[in-house]
Amino acid sequence: MNKYAETEYSIGEFSKLTGLSIHTLRYYEKEQLITPARDSGNRRRYSEQDLAWVEFIQRLKDTGMPIKEIKRYARLRRAGDATLTERMEMLKAHHEALEEQILEMLEHRRKLEQKISYYREEIARAGK
Predict the structure, then answer these.
(1) At what angle do helices 67-79 and 48-62 cross, to 10 degrees?
(2) Under DSSP, is residue 105 helix (H, G, I), strand (E, B) or coil?
(3) DSSP 3
(4) Which residue has the higher pLDDT, 35 or 127?
(5) What is the enclosing helix (H) or strand (E) of 38?
(6) pTM for this structure?
(7) How big is the CA angle at 68 (ends 4 and 76), to the nearest 5 degrees?
(8) DSSP 3-state helix, strand, coil percentages of the chain (rounded to 5)?
(9) Which residues are bridge partners to 37 per DSSP?
């Protein structure tokens, strides 16, 4: 039994689950980031697999991957297992860029902590 076959969601239900507007979901479909199934009335039906995929798209966006790269990744994903290596390489490159950002942010935090410490010392010295 396919673990993703159990539940289907309408676009409204899926919007609530993901926190994405219906407009955004339609945009994602237009841009071929997601391709929900359609029922006999041609209404979109989203699956648990779609939910996991949209959560991953959101994570890529939240970590700064440009939409152009997310579209490329989605295109490769649709192409199937022949693109596994290329997708992995994309994620490795994104991971590396994220690591660099984290290190940069940690350095910014360290500098701010130094400045805060300086002001504490100056305030304490002035108060004596």
Answers:
(1) 150
(2) helix
(3) T
(4) 35
(5) strand 37-38
(6) 0.80
(7) 45
(8) 70, 5, 25
(9) 45
